[in-house]
Structure formats: C-alpha cells, structure tokens
Amino acid sequence: GENVEQHPSTLSVQEGDSAVIKCTYSDSASNYFPWYKQELGKRPQLIIDIRSNVGEKKDQRIAVTLNKTAKHFSLHITETQPEDSAVYFCAAREGQAGTALIFGKGTTLSVSS
Amino acid sequence: KAGVTQTPRYLIKTRGQQVTLSCSPISGHRSVSWYQQTPGQGLQFLFEYFSETQRNKGNFPGRFSGRQFSNSRSEMNVSTLELGDSALYLCASSTPSNTEAFFGQGTRLTVV
C-alpha cells in the first residue's frame, strides 16, 4: 500500500521567514495530495491540495509543488506569521478509487516573533 | 451547513472492554473514513465506508471494525481494548466528486 514520509518533524523559523516541508510517497497511482493544518486541540483542516496533473498550486502565502517522477511534494509558506504555528500533515490518496488518505507523521512548525 | 459530528467527545474505558464511536457526516456526503491519531504515529488510516460498504481498510487488527448505515452515519467498534488503543479517533466525510475530506472534532479515548 501507499507510504508517505514527511520531513522535518519539527521546524522553527522567525516571523517573516519562509518554511518548507517535504513529503515523499511510494504509490505511483496516487493522484491527490492534500495538506492539513492542525492547531492544538482542534481538528485537521485542509489548507491546500494538488492533483497529479498539476505541478504547482498557490494560494496567497501558501504553495505546493509536486514532482510525479520523483514522487515527492512540498509545502511552501512565505512570510510566516505566529498564527502559522501548528502541526502540518501531508497526505496522499491511495490508489485510484476511494477517498482514503495516507498521512505523513506531521511537522510541528513554530514561528517566533 | 452542519459539519462532521462525532460522539462522544471523550471516553474512558478499562482494558478488555469494548467501545463504539459514532460519526455523522456532512449532509450529502456518502463516504466516511476513520483515522487513529497518536503523538508518535500521526494520523493512521483505519477504514473507509461508502454506501454502507467497506471500500478500504488500513493495517489494524480485527479488534477494530466499523459499519455504515443507510443514512451514511458510521460507527466504529473496538473490542478487547488495550492500553495502546488510547488515542484521538477522527472521522472524515467527503463526496465522491470532491476528494476534500472534512474532519470531525474527534473522540478522545483513554484506556486505563
């Protein structure tokens, strides 16, 4: 089945810096790659996603890139703010059917002001 | 429109007991997935249901089971509870055409 590796596990940046989180996946049939943000005590919430027919997607300060050949995708956050502090999870949708997501183990991002 | 609702929010059970958790998806969503979240392992996929049928299953022992009803509400059951089953159990719902998964607040299960 699908396996998703996520790095780094923790990331500390200064306010205004950029943050990059990287994930690799194993199943070449996976075609949907979402990123979720989970604040302490809250549910995971989708912040951006990308499908396998697209190489890059941006939404204000957040962007995701996908390299299908290398089977890796990355989250880029620019001009980080203290409210960006949270745990970020990447995921891949397993195979061609269903909506089950296989998650990476998460990255704890701390943005200090 | 109402979000994904999970009940109960908190549970404390004793080793060896069994537990049933409930998930009501967003109206119109027919797919429900369950995940176990622990500090060391992150979010691990348990199983997915669509139209009352289990469509995918993760790598968990048979003590973990689930079902889905005709109104798309889903339940998961864990029998013979072990200390290691203590976790936050999250369910997520989505429509077939929109792969975005919307999560509930989760049920925090503590096994003592």
Give the tags.
heterodimer; A: 113 residues; mainly beta; B: 112 residues; seven-stranded mixed sheet
Q: In terms of topology, how is this protein built?
A:
The complex is a heterodimer of chains A (113) and B (112).
Chain A: E1 4-7, E2 10-14, E3 19-25, E4 32-38, E5 45-51, E6 56-59, E7 62-67, E8 72-77, E9 86-93, E10 101-103, E11 107-112
Parallel strand pairs in A: 2-11
Antiparallel strand pairs in A: 1-3, 3-8, 4-5, 4-9, 6-7, 7-8, 9-10, 9-11
Chain B: E1 5-7, E2 10-13, E3 19-24, E4 31-38, E5 42-50, E6 53-57, E7 64-68, E8 74-78, E9 87-94, E10 102-103, E11 107-111
Parallel strand pairs in B: 2-11
Antiparallel strand pairs in B: 1-3, 3-8, 4-5, 4-9, 5-6, 7-8, 9-10, 9-11
Low-confidence stretches of chain B: none
The percent of residues in helical segments of chain A reads under 10%
Rounded radius of gyration of chain A (Å): 13 Å
The average pLDDT value of chain A, as a whole number, equals 94
How many helix segments of chain A?
A: 0
Largest interface, Cβ cutoff 8 Å: A-B, 24 and 27 residues
How does the major sheet of chain B shape up?
Answer: 7 strands, mixed
The parts of chain A where pLDDT drops under 50 for at least 5 residues are none
Helix content of chain B: under 10%
Which assembly state applies to the chains in this document? heterodimer
By DSSP (H or I, 4+ residues per run), the number of helices of chain B equals: 0
Give the biggest sheet of chain A: 6 strands, mixed
Q: Could you tell me the number of beta strands of chain A?
A: 11
Beta-strand content of chain A: over 45%
Indicate the structural class of chain A: mainly beta
Beta strand count of chain B = 11
Quickly give the structural class of chain B: mainly beta
